[in-house]
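User: quick one, sequence for these tokens?
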């Protein structure tokens, strides 16, 4: 069962990344971001929100080693921590914070608990 849920987490990671990689303008809008006269925002979406997660999830499908899943869990824990610090300092929209931060925190909790 752990293996199946790990693979689902990898596939979810690829799906999240695919939006940033293939549809950066859509992803910018979903995250309440916008470009400001430069295309670097689109490049950043394709790179850090897109390609990074597609590649990480893809490696997990090819080489499903538990410690690699721990690495993904640490990445999601860092993202969730950043979101919740942002809640204290930046006052982002609470609904989006809870949705995105909740997904990240849930994936972090699963990946770390199941694979350590």
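Assistant:
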């Amino acid at each position: 069962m752990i293996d199946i849920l790990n693979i689902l987490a990898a596939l979810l990671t690829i799906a999240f990344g695919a939006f940033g990689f293939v549809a950066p303008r859509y992803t910018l809008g979903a995250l309440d971001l916008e470009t400001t006269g430069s295309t670097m925002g689109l490049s950043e979406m394709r790179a850090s929100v897109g390609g990074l997660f597609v590649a990480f999830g893809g490696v997990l499908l090819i080489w499903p080693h538990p410690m690699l899943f721990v690495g993904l869990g640490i990445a999601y824990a860092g993202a969730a921590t950043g979101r919740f610090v942002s809640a204290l300092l930046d006052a982002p929209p609470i609904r989006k914070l809870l949705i995105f931060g909740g997904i990240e925190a849930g994936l972090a909790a699963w990946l770390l608990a199941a694979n350590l």
